[in-house]
Design brief:
Distance between the termini: 38 Å
Number of strands: 30
Bound molecules: adenosine-5'-monophosphate-propyl ester
CATH topology of one domain: Rossmann fold
Number of helices: 22
Radius of gyration: 25 Å
Largest sheet: 8 strands, mixed
Structural class: alpha/beta
Strand order of the largest sheet: 12-11-8-6-7-14-15-23
CATH class of one domain: Alpha Beta
Shape: globular
Length: 664
């Protein structure tokens, strides 16, 4: 079989879908020469930096003299809050910037650019008076309410980086991040709605501040319904806890001059999971990050100021930072955000909202698409919405789900844009510019202009596209949106992302290759098919969870001797964790170990990381040297062939576990 035939056999029938003519006719990016312009490294990227307002222009677009600590738009100065708010006031002061819907749609807020300007300024003034200074890192633990983007933008205005921790994270997870960032100030809210219930939220910050090593001076508290109507369980510590409403009341009408930040000054930290238990604080710079968020929002998401754009992600993750807040607002559009679950108050709510506001662009995850598909096409068919652009992010989308989305949500006349990227990359790296390439279900698309992507074999040799072979996805050249470092741990930055395929002794940036730890196939047509993580990280419903984090949480249970986590393929969520545990000898038989393991995960990480199953076993498959063979557990979880187990310390163990899980 020739290489080409092998590829055909592997991919099955190739299918391309042309972008609809009416989309192409109005798209932002229609000139294929953008790829040539951005090949001109590094000056090509200036085109996207020009989308922003700079207080001072850069001297050099790129400084690669200290790899891998690259600098972008060196000498330039700007403020992210100014770029997302002030500069739009002349033309669109009364246009809605943030359109917020509560879970039951009874509360709605339309925050015009003028209102956003006022609220952000007043909060910035209050924060400054409280003592928050430029470069202080403030940790936020906020859900999907307008308070979250307002706080981010107020901090950006005074040059204090934010570190927003997804509201679903537990108190312990929050404490770890407060300690790592060394935050003196934490911002939370008393409660928020999920599935009709007002969840008490402030207690997580209370517990986190209690257990953190770092001394937190203040917990600033937003309220869901106003200070006079606090969540009934909220507690209060005088002196430490302050209502944001009270702080801001003293600053009514105040205006704060946006701090002119160096392009390289950090804008925010975003913690993410890796191979080891400790989360990494990905540090993003002001100039390069905002350039990338704005450039990709314009060219990939096709956002225009007059659009109503809805990204249904959570601002607590990078998608929401780049593509609910910074990118869309930098372009002056209307960005919709919603509190609550997609099936509450009913399964048609997403489409009802899309119809109500005539949403033009809708952005979600493949997990959500699979869920909509399971609920059935009759639900969206009951609403009159009309998208021109649909984005997916976070996981591979199976062609079947893609086609359903195309037909039943896009009605065959919207583009579907699969976007591959990571917390670390700041924004999209692999995706089509939707008017310029045909869509191909199951492939993320081509490299973004200026991005040099490739697929390497184990020895770092490029895999020929025509071979159809999978390998390590790599990025061979720096780009402005990339993380600056791992906060406080430059060694870990090098070790995690660069050590695999770079000449780490070289001071020539060309010798440095970024390794995202994803498997991919580089297809002959230049498209990349992303296969998933190569390290010990699971992708659960588009959420990145380290297996080591899960294992160390379960190891906290006193009755557990050993724990190992395996990824089970799941039709809905992509992957879900199965936890295998060996109980300690001599423990009380009555103890419900699975329940304790689940509780430990909820406490250490959060309920969103809850395992699919906890399986209590007598022994785990181990090599003779005692290393747990997680691959075999994964085979068992997925009911796959176990292969040869002869080299194990006890070759019969996998079969015993298999029978326990699946029967005979
Ligand atoms: O494995 C890839 C997967 O999500 C990982 C990044 O997760 P996170 O940092 O949480 O960012 C999610 C939002 C960008 C990647 O290493 N991933 C992301 N997008 C895709 C994807 N896998 C396949 N196709 C995608 N479009």
């Amino acid at each position: 079989m020739s290489g080409e035939e092998a590829l055909e056999a592997q991919l099955g029938e190739r299918e391309y879908y042309r972008p609809p003519a009416q989309f192409v006719g109005q798209a932002n990016a229609t000139d294929p020469e953008i790829y040539d312009r951005f090949e001109d490294f590094p000056t090509g990227f200036e085109e996207w930096a020009e989308l922003l307002d700079w207080d001072e222009y850069w001297d050099e677009p790129f400084d690669g003299s200290e790899p891998p600590f690259f600098k972008w738009f060196v000498g330039g100065k700007l403020n992210a809050s100014y770029n997302c708010i002030d500069r739009h006031l002349d033309e669109r002061a009364n246009q809605t910037a943030l359109l917020w819907e509560s879970e039951d749609s009874e509360e709605v807020r339309r925050i015009a650019y003028q209102d956003l300007y006022r609220e952000v300024n007043e909060l910035a003034a209050a924060l400054r008076e409280l003592g928050v200074e430029e470069d202080d890192i403030v940790t936020l633990h906020l859900p999907m309410v307008p308070a979250l983007p307002i706080t981010m933008l107020a901090l950006a205005r005074i040059g204090a980086p934010h570190s927003q921790v997804f509201a679903g994270f537990s108190a312990d997870a929050l404490a770890t991040r407060i300690d790592d960032a060394g935050s003196d100030v934490v911002v939370t809210i008393d409660g928020y709605y999920r599935r009709g219930e007002l969840l008490h939220h402030k207690q997580k910050a209370d517990q986190a501040v209690e257990s953190a090593d770092h001394d937190v001076d203040n917990v600033l508290v937003w309220t869901r319904h106003g200070p006079e109507d606090l969540h009934e369980d909220a507690s209060w510590e005088d002196g430490r806890d302050i209502f944001i409403e009270d702080l801001v009341a003293e600053h009514e009408g105040d205006r704060i001059q946006p701090v002119s930040r160096d392009a390289e000054d950090p804008l925010f930290l975003m913690y993410t999971s890796g191979t080891t238990g400790r989360p990494k604080g990905c540090q993003h710079r002001t100039g390069g990050y905002l350039t990338w968020a704005a450039g990709t929002s314009r060219n990939v998401l096709d956002i225009k100021p007059e659009d109503t754009y809805w990204c249904a992600a959570d601002i607590g993750w990078i998608t929401g930072h780049s593509y609910i807040v910074y990118g869309p607002l930098a372009l002056g559009t209307t960005s919709l955000m919603r509190e609550g679950a997609p099936d509450t108050p009913h399964k048609g709510i997403i489409w009802e909202i899309a119809e109500r506001y005539d949403v033009d662009i809708f952005h979600t995850s493949p997990t959500a698409v699979r869920m909509f598909m399971k609920w059935g096409e009759d639900i969206p068919a009951g609403y009159d919405f009309d998208f021109r652009h649909l984005t997916t992010v976070g996981e591979p989308i199976q062609p079947e789900a893609w086609k359903w989305y195309y037909e039943h949500i896009g009605h065959g006349d919207a583009v579907i844009v699969d976007t591959w990227w990571q917390t670390e990359t700041g924004g999209h790296l692999i995706t089509n510019l939707p008017a310029l390439q045909d869509m191909k279900p199951g492939s993320a698309g081509v490299a973004v202009p200026g991005i040099k992507a490739n697929v390497y074999g184990p020895a770092g040799e490029p895999v020929a596209p025509e071979s159809g072979q999978a390998g390590d996805l790599v990025i061979e050249r720096p780009w402005p949106g990339m993380l600056q470092t791992v906060y406080g741990d430059p060694e870990r930055f090098i070790e995690t992302y660069w050590s695999q395929f770079s000449d780490t002794n070289s001071d020539d940036w060309r010798d440095w290759v970024y390794c995202p730890e994803d498997g991919a196939v580089y297809e002959e047509d230049g498209y990349f098919r992303i296969l998933g993580r190569l390290d010990d990280v699971m992708n659960v419903a588009g959420h990145r969870i380290g297996t080591m984090e899960l294992e160390s949480a379960v190891a906290q249970v006193p009755e557990v001797a050993e724990a190992a986590v395996a990824a089970r393929q799941d039709d809905m969520k992509g992957e879900v964790p199965d936890v295998y545990v060996i109980p300690r000898e001599g423990i009380d038989e009555e103890v419900d170990i699975p329940a304790k393991a689940v509780a430990a995960i909820e406490e250490e990480i959060g309920a969103f990381a809850r395992p699919n199953a906890v399986i209590v076993v007598d022994e785990l498959p181990k090599t003779r040297s005692g290393k747990i063979m997680r691959r075999l557990l994964e085979n068992i979880s997925n009911d796959e062939n176990l292969g040869n187990t002869d080299t194990l310390r006890d070759p019969s163990v996998p079969e015993q576990i298999r029978q326990q899980v699946h029967g005979d």
